[in-house]
C-alpha cells in the first residue's frame, strides 16, 4: 500500500523495524539499517536490486509539522542524490496535495534547505542514529 | 520569544528579538564569509541586514528577449513598473554580464515580521526587471513563487534608503512561520527566526543560504532564551 504502482518510485519504504546504529563507522562497512536488502555482511554492493546498495541510500524519517497530513509511511530509503525538490514533489503526490498548496521541508526542524540540495549531504551534516529526520509542512498558497 | 501559546499571534517577531536574531545570523555569516552585514542609518535608530553579491548572467538568450512584446504574464505581480525598451533588450542579449544583487532584511513594525527587499542591476547601473531577476532563480522556485503563501512582489521605496526595491510582501509571513515556530517551541528548541525565515523566502528570489546556518540553530539549543 505504501508503494505507488503507476510511476517509478523514487523512494522505497522501509517495511520492517531496523536496528539503529549509534554511530556510522567511517568505512561504512556496517549496515545502516537497510530493511529489504541482504544481511549486512557486505561491503561489496549487492547487485540483485541496484538501488538497494547501502552506500547509495540513506534513511529518512519524515515528520509532519502543523496541520499537515501525516504520512502513513514515515521511514523511507532515499538515494543520496535525491534533491529536496524531488522529495517535495514526492511528498506532495503522496499526500495528494493540490497544486496551490506548497510544501516545505526542514532540517533541524527550522531550516529549509535549497531545492537542489541533495539528501546525502543533509544526512552527512544532520543525520544521527543512522537516519536523517526531515520535517515537512504544507502551506496554503495565495488564492 | 513568547509564552506557551500556540496561536499564530504569538509568533510575531518583536523588534529587539529581530535585531538579536540578525546579530546572531551575521556573526555566523562572518564566520563562513557569507557577506551579510548590519547597516545602520545615521540619525536613525533603525538598521537592517544587507548582502550584496555578484553573479554572472548566463550567456544564453534570456526569455525576456523572446517575450519583448509583453512585459509579464505572471498574474501575481503587481506594480512592476519597468517597461522593456530596445536598448535594454539589446544589452541583455550580450554574452555574460555581471549582475549585482542586493538583499536587505528590514523589520516591519506594522506586521511585526522581517521583510525582504531586493534589487539587481548590471554593472553600468541598469536595473533588472523582475523577469530578469527570475532568470537566475531555480526553476522550481518560479513555480513556487506563483504558488507560494506569500503575497505579491511589489516594487516599493526602501523605507530607509528611498530607492526602489522589490519587496516580498510580509502580510502572510506569520502564516508560514507559525507552524515552524510552534513546533520548535513544543520541542523546546531555540530557533533563529531570521535564519528560518530567510531559508524559506530567500531561494524564491535567488538567495540561497549555505547549510551551515542550519547548524547554527542547533548549536544554540543548549542555551535557554
Descriptive report:
The complex is a heterodimer of chains A (143) and B (225). Chain A is an alpha+beta fold and 143 residues long. Chain A contains two helices and five strands; from the N terminus they run βββαβαβ. Chain A has a five-stranded mixed β-sheet with strand order 1-3-2-5-4. In chain B, 33% of the residues lie in helices and 20% in strands. In chain B, strands 1-2-3-4-6-5 form a six-stranded antiparallel β-sheet, with helices on one face. Chain B is globular and about 50 Å long. The N terminus of chain B is likely disordered. The chains are: A alpha+beta (143), B alpha+beta (225). Chains A and B meet through strand 4, helix 2 and strand 5 of A and helix 5, helix 6, helix 7 and helix 8 of B. Chain B: It comes from Mauremys mutica. Chain B: Its main location: cytoplasm. Chain B: Belongs to the ATG10 family. Chain B: One of its GO terms (molecular function) is Atg12 conjugating enzyme activity.
Topology, pairings included?
The complex is a heterodimer of chains A (143) and B (225).
Chain A: E1 11-13, E2 57-64, E3 75-79, H1 84-94, E4 101-106, H2 119-126, E5 132-140
Parallel strand pairs in A: 2-5
Antiparallel strand pairs in A: 1-3, 2-3, 4-5
Chain B: H1 15-32, E1 37-40, E2 47-56, H2 63-66, H3 86-92, E3 98-108, E4 113-122, H4 130-135, H5 139-147, E5 153-157, E6 164-168, H6 173-186, H7 193-201, H8 212-219
Rough shape of chain A? globular
Largest sheet of chain B: 6 strands, antiparallel
Gyration radius from CA atoms of chain A, angstroms:
15 Å
Give the percentage of residues in beta strands of chain B.
Answer: 15-25%
The total of beta strands of chain B comes to 6
Side-by-side strand order of the widest sheet of chain B? 1-2-3-4-6-5
Largest interface: A-B, 33 and 37 residues
Rg of chain B over CA atoms, rounded to whole Å, is: 18 Å
SSE arrangement of chain B, N to C: HEEHHEEHHEEHHH
Name the structural class of chain B. alpha+beta
Low-confidence stretches of chain A: 1-9, 15-54
Q: What strand order characterises the main sheet of chain A?
A: 1-3-2-5-4
Shape of chain B: globular
* Number of contiguous helices of chain B: 8
The share of residues in helices of chain A is: 10-25%
Mean pLDDT of chain B: 76
Number of helices of chain A: 2
Strand content of chain A: 15-25%
End-to-end separation of chain B in angstroms reads 7 Å
GO cellular component, one term (chain B): cytosol
Subcellular location (chain B): Cytoplasm
Family (chain B): Belongs to the ATG10 family.
Protein name (chain B): Ubiquitin-like-conjugating enzyme ATG10
Amino acid at each position: 500500500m505504501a508503494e505507488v504502482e503507476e510511476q517509478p518510485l523514487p523512494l522505497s519504504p522501509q517495511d520492517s523495524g531496523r536496528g539503529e546504529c549509534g554511530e556510522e563507522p567511517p568505512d561504512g562497512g556496517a549496515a545502516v539499517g537497510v530493511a529489504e536488502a541482504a544481511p549486512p555482511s557486505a561491503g561489496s554492493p549487492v547487485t540483485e536490486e541496484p538501488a538497494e546498495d547501502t552506500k547509495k541510500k540513506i534513511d529518512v524519517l519524515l515528520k509532519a509539522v502543523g496541520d499537515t497530513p501525516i504520512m502513513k509511511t514515515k521511514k523511507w530509503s532515499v538515494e543520496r542524490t535525491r534533491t529536496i525538490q524531488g522529495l517535495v514533489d514526492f511528498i506532495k503526490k503522496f499526500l495528494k496535495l493540490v497544486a496551490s498548496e506548497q510544501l516545505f521541508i526542514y532540517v533541524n526542524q527550522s531550516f529549509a534547505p535549497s531545492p537542489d540540495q541533495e539528501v546525502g549531504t543533509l544526512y552527512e551534516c544532520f543525520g544521527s542514529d543512522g537516519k536523517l529526520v526531515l520535517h515537512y509542512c504544507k502551506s496554503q498558497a495565495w488564492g | 520569544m513568547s509564552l506557551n501559546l500556540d496561536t499564530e499571534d504569538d509568533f510575531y517577531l518583536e523588534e529587539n528579538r529581530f535585531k538579536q536574531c540578525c546579530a546572531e545570523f551575521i556573526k555566523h555569516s562572518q564566520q563562513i564569509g557569507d557577506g551579510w552585514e548590519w547597516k545602520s542609518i545615521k540619525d536613525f535608530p533603525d538598521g537592517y541586514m544587507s548582502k550584496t553579491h555578484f553573479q554572472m548572467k548566463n550567456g544564453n538568450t534570456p526569455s525576456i528577449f523572446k517575450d519583448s512584446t509583453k512585459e509579464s504574464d505572471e498574474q501575481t505581480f503587481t506594480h512592476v513598473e519597468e517597461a522593456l525598451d530596445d536598448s535594454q533588450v539589446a544589452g541583455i542579449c550580450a554574452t555574460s554580464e555581471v549582475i549585482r544583487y542586493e538583499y536587505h532584511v528590514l523589520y516591519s513594525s506594522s506586521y511585526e515580521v522581517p521583510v525582504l527587499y531586493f534589487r539587481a542591476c548590471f554593472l553600468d547601473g541598469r536595473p533588472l526587471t523582475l523577469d530578469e531577476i527570475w532568470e537566475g532563480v531555480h526553476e522550481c522556485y518560479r513555480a513556487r513563487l506563483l504558488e507560494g503563501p506569500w503575497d505579491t512582489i511589489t516594487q516599493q521605496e526602501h523605507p530607509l534608503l528611498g530607492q526602489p526595491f522589490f519587496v516580498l510582501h510580509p502580510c502572510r509571513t506569520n502564516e508560514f512561520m507559525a507552524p515552524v515556530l510552534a513546533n520548535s517551541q513544543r520541542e523546546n528548541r531555540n530557533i533563529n527566526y531570521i535564519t528560518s525565515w530567510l531559508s524559506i523566502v530567500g531561494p524564491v528570489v535567488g538567495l540561497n543560504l549555505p547549510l551551515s546556518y542550519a547548524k547554527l540553530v542547533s548549536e544554540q539549543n543548549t542555551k535557554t532564551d
